[in-house]
Amino acid sequence: MLSNDTRFIVDWPINRVLLMNDKNYPWLILVPRLEGLRDFHDVPREQEGAFVAEINHAARTLKSITGALKMNTAALGNMVPQLHVHVIARYDTDFAWPGPVWGKQAAVPYADGEAERLIQRFIQSAE
Amino acid sequence: MLSNDTRFIVDWPINRVLLMNDKNYPWLILVPRLEGLRDFHDVPREQEGAFVAEINHAARTLKSITGALKMNTAALGNMVPQLHVHVIARYDTDFAWPGPVWGKQAAVPYADGEAERLIQRFIQSAE
Fold first, then answer.
1. B55 — contact with chain A (CB < 8 Å)?
2. Where are the domains of chain B?
3. How large is the ipTM?
């Protein structure tokens, strides 16, 4: 999933930031570039602060550029064991609202240029 | 939901720790005792470290006493707007595996004494 269903956005000091290729929801995946992590609590203490700061910076930025009502921040990883954190912009008009987004409907890939525009807005706003 | 469907476990410096009254999954809810928070990234920076340390301590403790395969750590809050973090012990034999637990089946309340025993084990192991 992590490489097949996503687009690369940027590498931050701790996390690789990916965009889920599903235009149903503006949806980031943050993957810490550290070996052998599975659970959220597996991040070493000395990196925990920077790890969480990046997750929160990603969430604030995505909320700001999308005007989302609510952000969902979640580390599940039952299907893909490598630790990754979902940061998802939610609206009370989205398909899955108010339920979680997983497993509700098939992903709808972005059309040509749409993902690139969102990625560029994210990178510029996150600076 | 937060008071009707849960049992009180303990107050930590940042979070109130609750047990979901659903024996399908060992499932904690951590609620920061701060006013006006909705998203995970709303926790003030000066409390972010302690907030996350408590979440991770809860997850490590619950994983240890339950022997779970995987922990799910998630702040969704689409239905109950007040910020709360789910810490859920997962097994590859549980009902929802490998999907998320939300909305899969009705909660099964603990029988008399069962929740109390889990709460006591959690409190002792978390010390």
1. yes
2. 2-126
3. 0.95
